[in-house]
Each structure stands twice: as C-alpha cells, then as structure tokens.
Amino acid sequence: MQFRFVKKEDAKSCNDFHNRLYKKNRTLKQWEWGFLYNSYDPEQYLYAVCEEQNQLIGTQTIIPIKMIDSEGIFWTAKSEATLVDPDFRGKQIFKKLYDLMFEYVEKNNFAYIWGFTQATKALLPLGFQVPYDTKQIIMPFSHRFSSLLKKTNSNNLIKIAVKLGITAIRLISSLKLFLETPKDESFISVKTFERAPEESAKISEEFIKQYGGKTIYRDEEYLNWRIFDNPYAASICKGIYIDDNLVGWIAYTIGSDGVGSLVDIMAVPDKSRKVETSEIISRLLYEAVIGTRNMGASGIRGWHVTNHPFDLLVLEAAKNLGFFKINKGYAAVIYTVDPENERFRDLSDWYITRIYTEGVLG
After folding, report:
1. What CATH architecture applies to the domain 2-110?
2. pTM: predicted TM-score of the whole model, two decimal places
3. CB-based contact 140:146 (threshold 8 Å)
4. Is the N end or the C end of the chain the one with fewer CB atoms within 10 Å?
C-alpha cells in the first residue's frame, strides 16, 4: 500500500472515489474548492490517499484554518474526506492516513485538528476528544419543516406528535417574531455584501477582545473563500452599520433540503450610540428569519454549541425572537497537537457557528 499527498491532477480520481462510495454527484469544481484550498501553504495539497496496485482505496484531508484568541492568531486544521473502501477495512488504513496529518501539523506547529462527526469511535484511540455536541436552534415556517425532525423516527405516532408540535411552535414563533420586530432607527442601516467587508479582520479581533475564547479568524480571504466563493450554496451576507461603522454581520442561505441555515453571526459592541450587543444580534437574526422565509424556506436552523459568552447572547436573542433549542446534532472532535501547551488546553471556550461545517448547506 502507498500513502501520499495528492497532486492537482489527482482531483478527478479522488472526486470519483467519493461519488462512487457515497453515491453522490459532487462536481470537480466543488471538490477543488473544498480540498485544494490551503492558505497556509498554497503549494501543498493536504489531501492524502491510500493506493493499492494503483487503485484508490482511502482518503483523508485537513484544511488549514486560522483561529484567534487573546494571544493572537494561530493555525488549526479541519478534518474532512475521511473515507475507506469497505473492501479494505481492518487494514489500519484510517490510522496510517491520519499519521500523515499528525506529522504535518506537528512539523508546522498547528494547534488543533478538529471536525464534526457521528462516528467518533475510530477517532478516540488516535487522541481526539469529544468535548461537546452541536445543538440546534430552530424556527419552523411551515409544516414542511417537520420532515427535518420526523425523518429520524419510523414510528407513526411520533411523526404525528412532531407535526402537532411544529404547529404549536410555529404559532408561538410567529407571535414572538411580531413582538420583537426591530424599530427603524435613522442611524442604523443594513447592507448586503457582495464580497467580504474590508473590516472583517478588525471585527474578529474586536470580538475576541470583548468576549474572549477562541474562534475562526474571519479575515477577508477566509470569508471570501468560505461564503462568497462557495460553489455548493450561495449565502446572503448582511452587515449592520451604526453611524456608518460596521458592528456585525450574519450569513444565511437555503440548503437543498429547503431549510434555511444560519451560517455565521458576529457582532461587537457599538461605541458611538451605545446600542446593546443583544439588540444588534436580534436585528441580525431578524434579517435572516425574514430573508429565508421570503425565499421560500420551510424553516430556519442554526447551531448552539458551547457556553461561550457570545454564543449565549445569540441563544437568548434567538429564543426571544421565537427560536427553540433542540439537542440534535453532531459530536465535535478535537485533537490537541501539544497537550502540554496551556494556551490550547481549554476546549470549552470555542465560539462555533455553521461556518465551521464543510459548506455543503452554506
């Protein structure tokens, strides 16, 4: 067996391998967008393959992502494309592919490898931790949204109960949304972005100064790649300005399942008019709710993951608007490259949104 990192000319065979095993029709452009992106070292493709007699039988990739904390910017790697041909399981292929990843992140002083999955069993022996699961905040707009919850249950009584519950939630959400409609203020304006705003990095830095913890460093390069150049689902990204100063943004879209997604939300305190951050968050969420509803979504969902101070502010504002929280999601898996480094020991202080996902649903 041969284990190696791919070259650009391997793209088609890697994408064909994925489509064959998953029975998908992902395009080559989508594969290249997701897996050839490397802002740390553009000349190095961090997509590893295992081959047996020139046959592709396993893949694993990491995507370099900058994060930021109170001490500054540091590099991490998002795990994706974990796939082994079922005919070759039990041959330590998964572990050997990850050995390439571990060697790379250790050599280049990355802080973490992280991802989201429902299959944690194989990762735990490699040193990954599961510090928390993702949870969802939801707001249904129509009965069609109930399929999101019903599809995991085959019991007809449960399906009926879910449908009745969705009806009640819709009524409550509609009333709360009406009561929380933002007031027009001459000094507050909303702008739809066509590309990442030039203040992106500054907002990320101010965010950490205010709320602490760790989160993805959302500079222009990252936001343009992740949101505006995403070939899967085009997100709408809106910013809120107070006296012409950008104080926050929200990105949202509708996936192939007809459900709206809150892809990302960021906000920092207003220093001129002293508008509460909670009001800024509420206005941003309102834009996403009305926007996705007008686009024909059956409902909207977002992530709530940790007790990071800003995540709790978003959760509170969302509940006030008519969102409900449900414990349905994926396990967050995190590998700390240097467990002895005190800076990176605490995993509970991450601020996480759906911008951390692969991007297929926005």
Report:
1. 3-Layer(aba) Sandwich (3.40)
2. 0.92
3. yes
4. N
